[in-house]
Amino acid sequence: MVSIRSEFTKGLWTVIPPFRLVLGLCPTLAVTTTGINGMGMGLATTFVLIFSNLFVSLLRRFIPTQVRIASFIVIIASFVVIVELVMQAYFYQLFKVLGIFIPLIVVNCIILGRAEAFASKNNPLRSLADGLGIGLGFTLSLLVLGSIRELLGAGTLLYYSATAPGFHVMWASFEPFAFMLKPPGAFVALGILLAFMNLISQIQAQKGGGR
Amino acid sequence: MRDIIRMMVILTVIGAVSGLTLSVIHGLTKAPIEYQTIKFVKEPAVKKVLTGYDNDPILDRTKITVGTDERGNPIELVVFPAKKNGKTFAVAIEGQGKGFHGTIGVMVGVSKDGKITDIGITSHSETPGIGSRVTEEAFTSRFKGRPVTGDIQVDGISGATYSSKGVMSAVNEALTSVRKFKQELF
Description:
The complex is a heterodimer. Chain A is built from nine helices and two strands; from the N terminus they run H-H-H-H-H-H-H-H-E-E-H.
């Protein structure tokens, strides 16, 4: 039981994908113009990650090693298409915003990485916990990054569409910092967050006697 | 040899199962996707060109077959009817014309007495600030009240001749269908 919990929680801090592994940066930088966009991308990735981990793990004894990558890609691609269709049918505005980045989940190295490095060597329960943890870590990272960029770049929080504009949190004379919504702003925001996380880890290490 | 057969069988099974699952899901989501696309892409234009109805034109949309393409597949025209007390008094249909860059889609509202109620641009990729002025009310209102009996010519926007002509040809394409299928529409 302890090990399953640790498989889950490691994805939330010690190997949180965009910050610790610095993987999956393409969607991380491209779609996090608002918090909701980031969260939508994160949840879509989480869904694919959970089910690809589960199925890769269930089939790990049947798939011959020579064709494992091909099999993993087929499994991952199937779930990506499912996500794409469901999103188009029920969250059309999010689908329009995320656009090409939804089909590109197929080549997201976090998902193939977890399938190859973890799910193909562990039992389904542990793989499920791993997928859920890494996925939620990714979602959380994108939500935080998106919210910071949205707050500074547009002065709002949780903006979804013209009919659900979220909250206007900045004061009235606040001049939006449009640079944050551009791709370079994404790099700067990511860099600052990375620096903060390293700072926290360093302080923790010093407190723990250089552990 | 046995290994190769094993690989082939397993990959085939995985591919077949995934294909089957996806086709089922595609079937399940087809109707909602069509509704969403129409709602977000066409609804604003439909609302602009039709007024005074008490039904949902998006939900009540019908399709008429207007011809066949070179492969023999039917070309369908989607009709959005505006009804009051269950009677259709106007319809909106979309026509397409060639603009300066790519295709311009125009929703045309036609009333039962054969006049254009209004037009609305559904899609275009004209130059922002120049060709895109055809989407403004100052231009689209020039089509209001015109009879549908013949092709329509309105004054174009100077500097945006191709875009203006694109909108006109889109409107005239829609009107051709209206004249041809008047019996089925109302």
